[in-house]
Amino acid sequence: MSFSKILPLMLAAAPLAMAVPAWAQPVAPSGPAAGVTTQLPRGAAPSHYAIEVTPDAANLKFTGRTTIDVTVTQAMPALVLNAADLTISSVTLTPVNDKAAKGKAAKGTARIDAAAQTVTFDFGKPLQPGSYKLDIGYAGVINQQANGLFALDYTDNAGKAKRALFTQFEAPDARRFVPSFDEPSYKATFDLSAVVPADQLAVSNMPVKSSADAGSGRKLVTFGTSPKMSSYLLFFGLGELERATKMAGATEVGVITGKGNTGKAQLALDASAAILPYYNDYFGVPFPLPKLDNVAGPGQSQFFSAMENWGAIFTFERALLVDPRFTSESTRRTIYSIVAHEMAHQWFGDLVTMAWWDDLWLNEGFASWMATKVTDKLNPEWEMLLSRVNGRERAMSLDSLVTTHPILQKIHTVDEVNQAFDDITYEKGEAVITMLEGFAGEDAWRSGIRAYMKQHAYGNTVTDDLWKAVEGAGAKGVVGIAHDFTSQPGIPLVKVDSAQCQGGSTILSLSQGEFSRDRKDKAPLKWNVPVMAQAIGQGGGGTQQRLILNGSAQVTLPGCGAYLINAGQTGYYRSLYPEANLRSLVRDFTKLTSMDQIGLMADNFQLGLGGYQPMGLALDLIDAVPATASPAVLAEVPGYLDSAHTMLESDKASQARVAAYASKKLSPVLASVGFDAKPGENPQVPVLRSALVSTLGGMGDKAVVAEANKRFAALATNPSALDGPLRNVWLRIIAENADAATWDKLRAMANGAKSDLEKSTTFALLGAAKDEKLAARALDLAMTDEPGKTTSAAIISAVGGEHPMLAVDYVLAHREQYEAMIDVSARSQAIARLGGNSADPAMVTKLDAYATQYLTPESRKVVDRSIAAIKTRIETRARLKPALIGWFAKK
Which one from 308, 317, 342, 393 is the annotated catalytic residue? Predict the structure, then answer.
């Protein structure tokens, strides 16, 4: 839908893995955290892998051989490794430094357990402690979705069909490429070789060490030995690719794309060269590999954008390449942030790796936090710190429901690992780190991280290792706060019970409860909450920090008048004020910083949705945003109005009132910024312009829709008529309102697109049609080969945004075909996400029946989150409808 930034405010089901996003990290030879069950028995561990693969891209299969240096620490009946979709042709075990065995290789047998994704190697007698070389011959399949070794088909710039190969191993898919100890705690070094077509470029974590003729138009490429790392960070890519590079200190940074496209990756290349020195300094440990590539792959995944393989980050083209014909300013900034996120993982995740997936947030939360920090430092005009408010809201949209989970969560199964990549891990992780850094102080926090990196380099950690390092650097009191916010779920609700003005100071009495959308009757949890309070206006002084202990506290602020209790918006809590103070904040709205203006709107909108205060108070705040406000603040307003519009979707007359108000409030702003960029405009104006056009167009604003139609019609005589950063915004307005003839034109545009990226984006728009018959046509189209194997799922997802029941019914009727379109790791989540935006009680029944039939209790967690969100959405809309109608009627 057109209000992606406000999805959490509407209780959308679990959002996609990262717009930014990415996937997890490694572990320690000592094994995962205590008490966590694992797939592999303890007693043997690898120290080195030598792998040689020969891919057969045309036939979607490959052969391989690996020799693994294994140390056995206790007698074992057999060796158990991870393996999935592999067939074993031979296995031998050779003792090392065992004089009695004289290095004689013992042949073994292999027994594969497909359900457990393991292979057991039996050598006829128990293995005794010692060192061994395990040699395995095997074969595997090349997938057409992003799991294991996979193929991506595309059309090059000359219009020729091509195929490239890449790997995606996080979380548990290295086992699809090589029999391995595929858990993050089993760190080892890797030597990778590949027999590949002589005219293609092969890439891995390390630079190419040698290349030799292998006959029949092939070459044997051997890469340098990797550092000690977890198996899921291994990478291999192959195709008709090219590389552009530049130096960042002693490190060669590069971008690798299909031939002719490196120019579109210049933003990513420049970003990498700028970010790397900053990270080297911040972490206190220089990047240890000789090169760092960003590898762009065509197509897309519905569930991730990029993966932090050490020294060879993989990113889908749509999240890395810039095309001036249609790349928006928001997308450019997202690309920069994704590069920064994945580069942060080179330390948080790759150099120092979580001991087990329970601590996944050590990778993702910190990478998200670091990406925001460095992007803001290097591009201050973007005001990236403001984005943390929306990140906090995405996390709280999940954390306010009974189906939430702690940041630290117990992981036992493959499905649980895959489902752990959510906004609690990423966005709550970032929000809590932001709060803890604010409490500790920037210098102490950085000193603690530097100590942590140096102490645990090439090893594995648990969350407490980080807290100890930060407290050791002087940040006293961090551990208690951190434990509360990472070990238990939910959101503190800090309430102002009373406010008194005495002697020119404001005395606030605070109490702490718990904010919830669907469980208000439960006893609230207790947190140590670092509250940042500030008086606004005349006499107001500096921010006062107080820690709420045992659920209550008193704070004295210099000055009287309006006040904030989350000044700077660094706290992960909701702030509930007396109505009188909120009305004072409305009056003093322009005196607040942009951060506090955005945070105050978000907080109070959610308090209104949750029934903690009248919804009209939140709408009054939004109404108070003047046309002269910061463009960054104004850019948030359309999303809230779109949310109100959507909540009234069953009442067209009331929706029309919302649309009329939106046009009245936003059209003057749009008139001032114009439909097209102007020289020297504020850097935030392009983002504001996109939000205004998208929202007003989605509500049917006559002027905006007319402009979209005019520009679309101009394509008949001028193919460049839509070119520019709003191209896809205009096309979405056209697609949403399309009739059959227009839909057919869009389909023709998709097929005639100049690049695969443009093609996939335009095809996906076909699913956005409001006309249900056209949406049904889009679903049928998705089942064909016309859009491309990684684009079809995006079409279905677009239909789900506008017609969730139609999409879910269709997918259930074509379940096996649909599951073939998406990553194996996300199949248990996909249908829940399609139906998660619904407000239809029948969807609850449908999703529950699907989960009962096809999923286990462990793998249905995302379905249960969607069900909770739908139930809450239904209740919220029914409760708020009269208030919304009344407020907009008055306007």
Answer: 342
